[in-house]
Amino acid sequence: VAASEFDLIRRYFADATGTRADVALGVGDDCALLDVPAGQSLAVSMDSLVAGRHFLPADCPEGVGHKALAVNLSDLAAMGAHPAWTLLSLTLPQADEAWVEAFMQGFSRLANAFGVQLVGGDTTRGPLSITVQVSGFVDAPTALRRSGARPGDRLFVSGTLGDAALALRLRQAADVPAELAERLDRPMPRVALGRLLRGHADAAIDISDGLLADLHHVCEASGVGARVELNKLPLSGPVQAACRTGDWQLPLSGGDDYELLFSVPPTDAAELQQLCARAQQPVREIGEFTAGQGIVLIHPDGRETEGAPHGFDHFR
Ligand code: ADP
Ligand code: MG
Q1: Which of 77, 257, 300, 310 could be bridged to 207 by S-S, CB 3.0 to 4.6 A?
Q2: 30 lines ligand 1 (CB under 6 A)
Q3: What is the number of the ligand 1 atom nearest to the C-alpha of 16?
């Protein structure tokens, strides 16, 4: 017998994640009731994953569950917010319990890792698609906005760039090495780094559409330009090999990195690097922000070209 909407809610969503003291009422009523700590702002964000667009219906549901939450937590990380609650809207072609169970394994494991509680959502029938909303707390004056970068600020990124895009490229033809597949299917949001950057970074964004596209967003919001030194980009071995042919597409516009890009005043850069090293957060300075506009790429041979942002746009 197929499960009903209410069976699914009771079995898979009602007690999926732990209980937080600030949840007065969770899944089961018309609304959840939540207590925001005094003096904090609520940071809220929402992202959808549509089958055939962001993932394939045949993809491992556990990975899809992880990623649906991870991309949202990455937005909280980019603001320096502390994650707290999540809402999950699932549209399913049928009540496929095995799929929902595996999806919720991936979703819940990540939620638990960050102390996030699932407090409600919606379950409907239709073409497979997933929408997740997250809420976190941040002291508004310390929140990391896109608009704070200033000329002379150092440009930093976390982790390595282009791995997810390389995994996607390889997946069409060959077996993908496990570490690369992990970067595509199970990105780990940089929540701890985002918290650490408050009070140090002038601006931040998470890299979801590719370095150039997201750097362009920061430049536009801040009214500045930027210079990026390609030989400073943090790259894994496989991506480095791909770039050696002169094709920088993977780290510059690959997308799906979910690393943080941020700007730091030059006087604070050394101290911040020490802080990150102590916290075991891998960060690398890759360039600087400039007066004016536009992104300049400095190639390994010294040549300079314009870095046109070719990020993903659903409507182009
Ligand atoms: P209503 O009809 O009042 O909107 P629903 O019947 O849709 O309520 O949902 C019943 C309860 O189950 C609500 O608390 C809702 O937040 C929760 N819920 C429904 N679907 C999900 C889901 N996919 N994940 C988490 N909670 C859910
Ligand atoms: Mg209702």
Answers
A1: 257
A2: yes
A3: 25
